[in-house]
């Protein structure tokens, strides 16, 4: 359709804005924590249909949530990813509930960077071993990030694999994010 202004009007879907300015940090405000929990609900319950009795659990009380925040003009606008880490004893840590908002998946290495932040934080705090329960479909992703599978288990009605990070490989080098 030709308009009187000399351009063509086309009904194409508009893609959501995806900021390339991402900040990674421990949760520092109520809105960040609330947005992280909302993102977990969206990813795990609505998208993946996991059957948690309660998606929030006792580990959330002891965990440090780490979030990826999309910035607009240098100001944090939206939590687009997150992960939690917690210590189970003096030198053993767990990571979990890694999630990335759909428009941000596969483009900016947000998942890798959150994993790196989580393992590096634990390592700085005396971690000797770092574990996570990984959905079976994501095992090869974690293997590329220097994790090894230990055994199979079921979480929320879904096949998972207990994996351990090779701490000697963390923090990851910048070239591993490209």
Gist of the model:
The protein is α+β, with helices and mostly antiparallel strands. Helix content is 24%, strand content 34%.
Overall description:
The protein is of the alpha+beta class and 178 residues long. The chain has one domain (22-177): 3-Layer(aba) Sandwich (Aminopeptidase), CATH 3.40.630. Helices cover 24% and strands 34% of the residues. It has four helices and seven strands, in the order βααβββαβαββ. The protein has helices at residues 30-47, 59-62, 110-124, 139-143, and strands at residues 22-26, 64-72, 75-87, 92-100, 129-135, 147-155, 158-165. It has a seven-stranded mixed sheet with strand order 1-2-3-4-5-7-6, with helices on both faces. The chain is globular.
